[in-house]
Design brief:
The structure holds 2 protein chains of 2 kinds.
Chain A lengths: L1 H10 E12 L4 E2 L2 E9 L3 E9 L5 H15 L4 E14 L2 H10 L4 E3 L1 H13 L4 E14 L2
Antiparallel strand pairs in A: 1-7, 2-3, 3-4, 3-7, 4-6, 5-7
Chain B lengths: L3 E2 L5 H9 L6 E5 L5 H6 L5 E6 L2 H9 L9 E5 L12 E7 L3
Parallel strand pairs in B: 2-3, 2-5, 3-4
The chains are: A alpha+beta, B alpha/beta.
């Protein structure tokens, strides 16, 4: 990771920027990362959380450390950093389960959140599922 | 993926374009995957080279480039650990969930 940032420093012009987007560690618990889930109908109705595998985001903790290291070395300066809440939309519970099985394979849907989603979607058949993910946005500048 | 829309509210792109000086810039995107973010910012940047080590993802991304953006986007297989580009050749490097 530090090597990738060194490579970015090499290919950038003076005063060029590195933009780093990666999942934010702040929403982790000791049981793993939690992603809030809603059903969007007339309003967003909370349904519970998806859970990430404990340790599944260690790579992104390493990304935070790599950024801190290149800042200490003076390769870049930090222009801004913030956390974004990205919302992904799924049209049905079946679509969510398919995505969990094929793409978000380190994330699980527990039985209580599943039951709550089923009940909410029964009540709001046109509703869609919204999953919220916290993402760190770092903007670094080459001197 | 049918039934899934990643960030349809475009929070990520809006924030990127508000805070990062990407308009007209020559951009290298590292870890572009199937090019979702690449396509969303390509209309604003000057040009974008997007790399990913996954050959299948690069093939999918290349097929999905809209006709109007073909001159601005170039996808190629590559990784952030060995960027095959000359020094000082980009205005911005974007690590999209790949650092």
């Amino acid at each position: 990771m530090v090597h990738a940032l060194e490579q970015a420093h090499r290919v950038l012009r003076a005063r060029g920027h590195v933009i780093d987007l990666h999942p934010e560690r702040g929403s982790r618990t000791r049981y793993g990362r939690r992603l809030p889930v809603f059903v969007r109908a007339d309003a967003d109705v909370p349904a519970g959380y998806l859970r990430g595998r404990p340790g599944g985001y260690d790579d992104y903790l390493a990304a935070d450390r790599a950024v801190a290291r290149v800042l200490r070395r003076g390769l870049f300066t930090l222009e801004s950093t913030e956390v974004l809440a990205l919302r992904d939309h799924l049209r049905s519970l079946e679509a969510l389960e398919h995505v969990l099985a094929t793409e978000w394979i380190e994330t699980t849907l527990g039985p209580s959140t599943r039951r709550r989603l089923q009940a909410l979607l029964y009540r709001h058949p046109a509703g869609k599922i919204v999953v919220v993910e916290a993402v760190r946005f770092n903007l670094l500048r080459k001197p | 993926m049918r039934g899934l829309r990643i960030d349809p509210e475009r929070t990520e792109v809006r924030r990127l374009l508000r805070h990062a000086p990407l308009r007209g810039a020559r951009v290298l995107e590292v870890g572009c995957g199937d090019g979702r973010l690449t396509r969303r910012i390509a209309g604003v940047v000057g040009s974008i080279v997007a790399i990913d080590p996954d050959e299948a993802a690069i093939a999918r991304a290349s097929r999905r480039v809209p006709a109007g953006l073909r001159g601005r986007i170039h996808f190629q297989v590559g990784s952030g650990e060995a960027m095959p580009f000359p020094a000082h050749s980009f205005d911005a490097v974007l690590f999209s969930w790949s650092l």
